[in-house]
Amino acid sequence: MFEYHGWVTIQASPSGDDDAALLERIVERVHRAVRDFDDGDLLDLRWAAGVPVLHLGGMDKHGTAIAPELVDLFTRVGDLAPGSYGLLHVWDDQDPEHDNEFKVYRMARGLVTERGDEHLSPVAPTVMDGYEI
């Protein structure tokens, strides 16, 4: 099973004082990228308190197919909106090297880096007794 949960606060620049017209254009580009990614269970791009926010989440039985596209989408949002920040947590129990841990993709200033997870990993025994691979 492949599980993922994430969010991005979309900003044109790290200052947060974005030109409204520029931010609208960026949000439209992000919307197109999200629309082109049709594998997601939850893909929600909306304005909250005047700020655009993207939420992603879901589960897939075959994570090896969706994982690269999901990380590409997350990275693409950072490329389109270089002031953005957020987190994407993924767990792929079919990953032979990381089947018992979440990975965290951190976006800061639009740049995405991969990190280990200390909150829910190792999955067994932190959140479940065990599972069969």
From TrEMBL:
Entry-linked Pfam families: Imm7 (PF15585)
InterPro entries in the cross-refs: Imm7
Protein name as it appears in the record: Immunity protein 7
UniProt organism field: Amycolatopsis japonica
